[in-house]
Amino acid sequence: MEKTIAGKIVNVNEEGYLTDFNQWNEEVGSTIAAEASITLSPRHWEVLKYLQNEHKSQQALSIRRVGKSGVVDIKEFYQLFPVAPLKTATKIAGIPKPASCI
């Protein structure tokens, strides 16, 4: 289905995740973050770029993997993305919901 995010028409699934990463840009990410009541800081962007790179290299994402990444520890990950951190962060990053998320 289509949804307008940051003035751009994008394709999303029933949970609101982008289905085409090529439609993502930082403005789209910032708007999705704002919908989740998150104001993105440079630290957020660092974590989002990490998640995008892991997705591009086809690595399965999990909270544990993110915590062991050296990019962010689990405590800080929860501080940056307080509600459902991995689901929220991947949605903002424009990548599919990880299989490890319910």
Written description of the protein model:
The protein is mostly helical and 102 residues long. It has one domain. The protein has helices spanning 26-35, 42-56, 63-67, 74-80, 85-93, and strands spanning 2-5, 8-11. The longest helix is centred in the middle third of the chain and has 15 residues, at 42-56. The chain is globular, with a radius of gyration of 13 Å. The two termini are 21 Å apart.
Side-by-side strand order of the widest sheet? 1-2
Strand content: 5-15%
Please indicate the count of domains: 1
Distance from first to last alpha carbon: 21 Å
Inertia-based shape: globular
The average pLDDT value, as a whole number, equals 94
**Element pattern in H and E:** EEHHHHH
User: How helical, in percent, are the residues?
Assistant: 40-55%
Sheet/helix structural class: mainly alpha
* Spans where pLDDT lies below 50 across 5 or more residues: none
Q: Rounded to an integer, what's the Rg over CA atoms?
A: 13 Å
Number of strands: 2
Write the layout of secondary structure elements.
Blueprint: E1 2-5, E2 8-11, H1 26-35, H2 42-56, H3 63-67, H4 74-80, H5 85-93
Keywords for this entry:
102 residues; mainly alpha; two-stranded antiparallel ribbon; 5 helices; 8% strand
Question: What's a concise summary of this model?
Answer:
This protein has one domain. It is 45% helix and 8% strand.
